[in-house]
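2 proteins. here.
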Amino acid sequence: MTQYCDGSQVAVGATSCPSGAPHVGYPSGALAGIWYDNSAASPSQASGKQLAAEAVKAAGHFGNTTQASNRYAQYVILSPTGTHPDGFNTPGGGFCAWHDYNGDTTLSGGGAAPSPYGDIAFTNMPYVADLGASCGANFVSNSLDGYSIVGGHEYAETVTDQNPAGGWVNNTGSSFTGQENGDECAWISSGQGAAALVAFSTGSFAMQSTWSNDTNRCDISHPIVSGSGSGGTPTANFTYSASALTVSFTDTSTDSGGTIGSHAWTFGDGRTSSATNPTHTYAASGTYSVTETVTDSSNGSTSSKTSAVTVSASGGTPTANFTYTISSLTVSFTDTSTDSGGSIGMHSWNFGDGSTSTAANPSHTYASAGTYSVSETVYDSVNNRSSTKTVSITVTASTSSQLIVNGGFETGSTAPWALTAGVLCSNSGCPGETAHRGSWFAWLDGYGLTHTDTATQSVSIPAGKTTATLAFYLHIDTQEVGSIAYDTLRVQVLNSSGTVLATLATYSNVNAASGYSLHSLNMNAYIGQTVQIRFYGHEDWSLATSFVIDDVTLTVQ
């Protein structure tokens, strides 16, 4: 049965099988046992998944409960007459038998059948006599010819591929190139390779012929390919050429007295190959220890050669580029450089005032207004090629100004504030509260009875400005408890007649906390106007709340 040795390495006329070619030894003692599973009636239309599950059940029955014990086991499931397993003997079910394994996700009835024993190979033999001549009845001598012909056909395929999904294939150059071996010589009724009665110890049975690489034809009887041969002595050798990170290897090994059956390469970076002349691309530059091991096709003798292979990335061509935004004396730079064929490894900035940076996207603040020549140089990460871009950048100082007079109350007098009596305080004169900075502050309320205090100043905000920001430090002490705002401080904008234009913010006893907090309020709506800024504090009839204000500013730009 010479189809057990197959492949392009097996020449026509070969009587031995090189180890490099697919090879399965001649089977002996093939029938291991017979089991009748009478636990349930056979399904009338068993699906492929049901048949696979039955094979798994049989493996458990025969004690083959490991992957290793099932590696060379085949379970043949015989279906009774009148049934239609996997569509047998139904319209469109034009087959006589088939083989597969439980893990095939395309099995009818729901795909793969789970197995605790590893992969399970099986053959389904329907009751072929139900199809009569379509499945071999009287093909050679009697109505039962189909059993031995179909059984032998499936056996020849499955013993050479115990995990079939496409079956053992043949590429010897016959008309069935690339097909399962059993199909090479199926249903030949006369002439060379015709099915015939073959004598066994138990009688003569109809069998189909099998393919012979020796005669390059279908033969009903032929010597068995043994896979033997004395082999030779291999000597590993190779050459290589490197282009950047890619290396092409050429095998130049020899085998005195034999032929090389396999190649095993290790590339020194954890990757391997079994190709004769592989090409490998490394992830990074460096020197790698590459080994090729060759094995004689017959006797298994090996030889190895190791060489140090150095690769280096070629890098690319960088082009420097950047954008920037200006805010007063501060410039924020954004790198937009590119590197064709590589990657940028370093940035070098010169800001034109003696300052430098190696950040990708730096920000720089100049000491004074002026025009500065800014350059960025970028370098390729591998070959250190560089590119520079230079731009002239003009920065101007901010024209901001502060409009509140005596905002920290440090003159010790109320002017130009309009303050209710008792609001102006000093650290020494008003025990219990202190200034945020300096010695003076404004203390509104804090009496524990119905009371109102105010602090007001008139300001003219020049036209042509873009921003106006009121800022102040506020500290709140209270005897109130809970989350209800009993006592409040309103920050208001009034026109010159005293009409309230807006309340910018409201604070209360609920906001009480230790220390001062800085508050900033937007007054852009009043640019170009003369307005009054008023702090309006009001207490209810019990429990004191103090609103302490200091360092008031109104900054415009």
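next one coming up
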Amino acid sequence: MSGVWQTDITYIQLTNHRWVYLATILDREKRKVLGYKIGDTMTAELATSALQMALDKHRKPLIIHSDMGSQYTSAEFNIKCQNYGLRHSCSLKGVRTIMAVWKRFIQY
């Protein structure tokens, strides 16, 4: 088992000026993307699909960490975590230090 994975969603502007959302799962220790999903809407399904991709390809972590966005506080995402025995932790609103690794990654 790995230690901690982090997840968040950002938006990307494509060359045709269309916007899409990118959900990523990042191994906090290795600073490596383990799973991702691109979609037109920022939904729980988007977040859950990225998590499933990571779980399908990598050993599960002890903890999955996110912010308190509705995608991550949804029943769908939390049921997925429970089904795999993952502890889901969330940053307190306004506290950005825990998500700093993910934020640095996504800037590039």
